[in-house]
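We emphasize that the prediction below concerns an isolated chain of 278 residues; any contacts that depend on oligomerization or on bound cofactors are therefore not represented. The input was used exactly as deposited, without trimming of termini.
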Amino acid sequence: MSRAGLRWALLGLVLIAGPALAQLDVGKLFGAAKKAVDVVTTKSVDEEREIGRQWAATLLGAAPLVRDEALQQYVNRVGLWVALQGERPDLAWRFGVLDSPNVNAFATPGGYIFVTRGLLLRLRNEAELAGVLAHEIGHVVARHHLNAIRKAQGLSLGADLLSEFALKGRGDETVNERLLGGVREVLTRGLDKGDEYAADRIGVVLAARAGYDPFGLPSVLQTLQAMDAQDSTLALMFATHPRPDARLDALDKSMGTQLDGLGTLSQAEARFLALRGP
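Result of the prediction step, given as a token string:
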């Protein structure tokens, strides 16, 4: 972590992370995610990062980063603070805003997280941004994408995906092509609905732990629900995710009253609008 990032994180700890949030029971909402984290401790994080690096390069090949250093640093600060509340704070988390009008967000193994300019322009405050980033962080925490690649390549549940495709496969065009084939399939087809619902549950908890209004993510889903389903900028989002109303219903059933009383936490609207721009 950079010195600037550490200062920001410590400031956030002092200002917004209270004892009640520190004791928030993540286990009740995470479901199987914690179990997945326990498994990753026996794997090589370097291998996972290598897969994520290749995946991120694919995304950046399709859309470059927005040329706004202040905005990119801001999104990285928000994302890093939220990621530090999760079960894998040791990853080299990286966040970026893609210069694309499409409304979407992406995560790759190893901690590369991207949000599109099209989605960012539809957010209203920092709590909504934190909720979106927390959802994507949830996918990485639970290793959803790695498991999806395993399924896409027809590997058995006991197969060691990382050892087969990452370090051993460097320089082997056949192995690398299988990996990239799995990446492309997941990007096109999306994750299982259950994975998306799980990432939503993780996301609201991580946002609350970070001191943000946990209803930021549901608010974003309400915005997506209100948009024209025929809008071309939503095509990939709707093709790879459950409907916003279905996600909202699932969140409502999962959250119940557990987060009641936390809706007065930070939204940081003015700071967000100042850095996002018009």
